[in-house]
Design a protein that fits this description.
BTB domain-containing protein; three-stranded mixed β-sheet; SKP1/BTB/POZ_sf; mainly alpha; 8 helices
Length: 136
C-alpha cells in the first residue's frame, strides 16, 4: 500500500487486509481493478502516520500502542480512514476512545478546532463521528 502524496510504501499481508480487515482492500486486491494485478494500492490522500496506526490494529489488535491518550485530531483522522476503508469494528473502537477521552477531560468537550474541521471536511452530515463531536 502506498500512502500519501509521496507514496510512502507499507508492506502488509494481502490475506490479512482482505479477509479480516477491510472490504475496500478485498475489492481492490481481489477484484478486476489494476490493484488486483499489481498488488499495489495507492491511497494518495491519506496520512502515512494514520495508516501506520490503522495497520497496527490487524497485526497487534491494538491502536495507539505507545500513546494511551491520543489527541482529538489523531482519533478523528483514524476514524475517517476506517470509514473510507469500511472497517466498522475499528470505527467502534475509535468511538470508545473518543468517549474515554471526553470523560478524562472532565466532560468539558474541549475538542480542538483542527479536529472539528477535519471531520466536517471529510464526513457526511449524518456521520456517527460528526454527530458525536456535535454532542460533545
Amino acid at each position: 500500500v502506498n500512502i500519501g502524496p509521496n507514496e510512502v510504501p507499507f508492506d502488509a499481508h494481502i490475506e490479512l487486509l482482505c479477509s479480516s480487515c477491510s472490504p475496500f482492500f478485498d475489492n481492490a486486491l481481489n477484484g478486476r481493478f489494476i490493484e488486483g494485478e499489481t498488488k499495489i494500492v495507492p491511497l494518495s490522500n491519506d496520512d502515512p502516520d494514520v495508516f501506520a496506526k490503522f495497520l497496527s490494529w490487524p497485526y497487534r489488535d491494538k491502536i495507539f500502542k505507545t500513546n494511551n491518550n491520543p489527541g482529538w485530531l489523531g482519533l478523528s483522522k483514524l476514524w475517517i480512514l476506517t470509514d473510507e476503508l469500511g472497517v466498522p469494528t475499528l470505527q467502534n473502537e475509535v468511538i470508545v476512545m473518543f468517549l474515554a477521552k471526553f470523560k478524562t477531560t472532565g466532560r468539558k468537550g474541549n475538542i480542538h478546532l483542527n479536529a472539528l474541521e477535519y471531520v466536517y471536511e471529510r464526513s457526511l452530515p449524518d456521520s456517527p463521528v460528526r454527530c458525536m463531536l456535535v454532542d460533545i
